[in-house]
Amino acid sequence: MNTLIQPAPVAVRTEPRDSWASVFALARFESRRLLLSIPVLVAFAVHLAWIVWHTLDSYDGFPALQDADRDTQSPPMLVGLAVLLTVNLAVLRSRRRDTDRHFDVLVVTTWRRSAAHVLSVVPAALLTAVCVGVQFGWEALKPGAVGHGSPGELLVGPLTVLLFGTLGVLLARLLKSAFVGPLLVVFFLFFVVLGVAPGDTESGTRWLNPVVGESSSETLPSDLLGRPAAWHALYLLGLGLTAAVLAVLAGGGRRVRTLYAALGGAMALTLVGAIAQSGGEPASLTAAREKATVDPEQTCVQRGRSTYCAYPEWEPRVGTWAQVVDEVSDLAGGTAHGQRLLVRQRVEARYGLSGDGALQPSGTAHEVTVGTRWGGPRVPEFSSAVAAVLVAGNEQAGSELCDGRIVTVMWLALGWQDQPMDALRKVRLDDSVSGSAIVLQPTDPLSMSAAQTDVVRTLLTRPRGEATARVKEHWSELTAPGLTTARAAELLGVKGITEKDGCQE
Amino acid sequence: MTSTVSASGLSLHYGGTRALDDVSLRLTPGVTGLLGPNGAGKTTLLRVLATAVPAQRGRFTVLGHDPGSTRGRQEVRRRLGYLPQTPGFHPDFTAFEFVDYVAILKEINNRAARHREVRRVLDEVDLGDVRGKRVKKLSGGMRQRVALAAALVGDPGFMVLDEPTVGLDPEQRMRFRELIARAGEGRTVLLSTHQTEDVAMLCHRVLVMAGGRIHFDGTPAELTARAAGRVWSSAERAPDAKAGWRTGAGTFRNVGDPPPGAELLDPTLEDGYLLTLDGHGLAVTA
Q1: Is B2–A29 a contact, with Cβ atoms under 8 angstroms apart?
Q2: Do A93 and B90 lie within an 8 Å CB cutoff?
Q3: What's the structural domain count of chain B?
Q4: Which of A171, A376, A414, B167 could potentially form a cystine with A420 if both were Cys, beta carbons 3.0 to 4.6 Å apart?
Q5: Closest-CA residue in chain A for B150?
Q6: Chain A residues in contact with B150 (beta carbon < 8 A)
Q7: Which residues partner with B234 through β-bridges?
């Protein structure tokens, strides 16, 4: 039985509401759940633990900030994967729990819910930015920090989290299975473990990856790096926005015209970033690298008896180098004690960060090379280079030492240090304190025989004053070409060394 | 009384099945019961009125808003409380979080006001003490009350409840009836149910639906009155009865056209419901 239709009632007036306010309210709700989810909490805990461990450990307090910025990029990938996984399941929640039937008749539409999910990953990205800021700020505040970080490099971590998060939303809108997210994470980790990533390391296509590392540990002046960090950040931002808009479109926003405009804008950003970052290195950069390697513009300053020439970013480090030079000179005898040295900072920049950065020893008298890295083993390495020049006259001759003078060089290099045995271990390639080994220097390495190592080790265990006195007393003979290791040992009061000629080993 | 919901000629076909066939109705404040056998089109009608699916023909308004347009549909949804049949839950949410989530989807944006409202509705369904408990830890009856709280949040003018008492034990059902009665004070509630007792106890009006059409629209007393003089008792099953069953006393209660001299019994709402379906050539399913 059908009833008669009465006249329609008067509409009940309600205050107009802002649907975007609901989107933001929902995004806050979802982001709170996201940040408190177990995978994301664990990922952030691991990230923070890594920051503490890495920053306490790295460079012994002498970071180059143009390297420190890149160090912030890889750990956020773990956070990104956790966010991808969690947001993917959050988007699928309504479908998996059959609440779609209910929620579909509520005011906030599906595409706005998708937009809220996209926005919910922003706080995770911001928190990552805070972590990155803490890590980089910590490095930058170290008294020995030099150089300049790049905002583009620092943005990579947070943008990676944003990209992974929006991909998680997009995946959930395209593929309704809860297994897709975990599967993608497993595949990603598999490729990371295998070190397989799309793109040739020498070509621009490697910049299509979210995080682009460098195979070399070389530190270059920041204007010679040639990394298109800002373009890459733009590319990542564009990619993240593209995924975000596609997720909203796939989530029911196909009728919203502004989304198509947003998609066009996001894709344009991606394209501009992708093309610009893959353009290769400009000729001006190649020329600047050539000049910085062959004929660098440096500021030279006088400290004590010696002169120090450094790239502008490293000028604050001159004092630290001078301290080492003074310590080594103080242990030397004869004319070497008051020898004026020219400490010149050099870098092999012509091959960029992909080269090994090996430097040839200088043939100029009393010139010592110092590299761009400092801290840890770099201190005894520089110290041994200074000692070699004081003993042999120049770096070229110093790098060819093989006789008993090696003992003198290594005593000068290590004798002044607070932890000389630790420094001996650090300066040797194999981290040993016995047997023969390669001794690293800023340019070509030295080679220590087992007997030379025994003599040096014995000297380092004796009171410093006693050994110093003997070195100064016999300085002429200890620095004379042809000195055998056995004779050096005898002069320094070390018994039991029978090796006649270190050069024969 | 001014109607809250007016529908005219609503039709919806699924393939060859007429889920709704030219349904017209008007609903006024209070609880209106919607009775009908399985497949009668009750859930389809509720889903159409809840704007979950659009009707292929006909139109309706809720509190003056026509959901035919996007803006009108949003206005209807702003005034709607919907409790679907076997509602889904997010088990890891607490009761508070689930209702809060629904409140956000109802555009209650101010956090403090929304939380006050969530606490209010949870208190209203007697779940204030367990609002911090995860939904998965709640009993079936409690979950159903969470769903009712979600429907109540935002003080909707029109509520659609699809078989809310299914699966509840008698005590929970009584409690739920109390809540529905309270929900019907000052607002329009359309209650779909198989339980004629629900209708008898709660509703000021009842609609009987079958085959996608409404076959009765009146008060429960009027539906009961349809069976006046058509319910009788007999020692054996009456062969001509439309329906008959043995009672606890051992006699048969028959519904239909009684033989002369039959011992007539007082009719119930269920008797009226059975005869209404039968009167339209429909199978009696009681």
Answers
A1: no
A2: yes
A3: 2
A4: A414
A5: A102
A6: 102
A7: B252
Among B171, B196, B217, the domain-final residue is B217
Specify whether A238 is located in the same domain as A350: no
Element containing residue B82 per DSSP (H, E): strand B80-83
Among candidates B6, B91, B157 on the partner chain, residue whose Cβ is nearest the Cβ of A8 = B6
A32 inside 8 A of chain B by CB: no
B70 with B160, same domain: the answer is yes
**Alpha-carbon span B270 to B275, nearest angstrom:** 9
The Cα-based distances of A45 to A54, A82, A137, A358, B259 in angstroms read 14, 12, 19, 38, 83
B137 within some domain: no
Neighboring chain B residues of A2 at a CB cutoff of 8 Å: 22-25, 213-214, 217
A6 touching chain B per CB within 8 A: yes
Closest CA relative to residue A111, chosen from A275, A274, A250, A267: A250
Cα Rg of chain A, angstroms: 31
CA distance B163 to chain A (A): 14
- Written as tens digits, the pLDDT of chain B (286 aa) is 678 899 999 999 988 888 999 999 999 999 999 999 888 999 999 999 999 999 999 999 999 999 988 889 989 999 999 999 888 899 999 999 999 999 999 999 899 999 999 999 999 999 999 999 999 999 988 999 999 999 999 999 999 999 988 888 888 888 889 999 999 998 999 999 988 989 999 999 999 999 999 999 999 999 999 999 999 999 888 888 888 888 888 899 999 889 888 899 999 999 999 999 875 555 444 3
**Taking CB atoms and an 8 Å limit, are A102 and B87 in contact across chains?**
yes
Strands (E), A270-387: 299-303, 306-310, 342-345, 367-370
Put simply, whether A13 touches B (Cβ < 8 Å) is no
Domain count of the fold of chain A:
2
Nearest-angstrom CA–CA distance, A310 and A372: 9
Would you say residue B188 lies in a domain?
Answer: yes
Q: Please indicate, yes or no, whether residues A367 and A494 belong to a single structural domain of this protein.
A: yes
H helices of B79-110, in order, are 95-105
Q: Do B104 and A104 touch (CB under 8 A)?
A: no
Classify residue A199 by burial, with Cβ atoms within 10 Å: 0-12, 13-18, 19+. middle
CB pairs under 8 A between A and B: 116
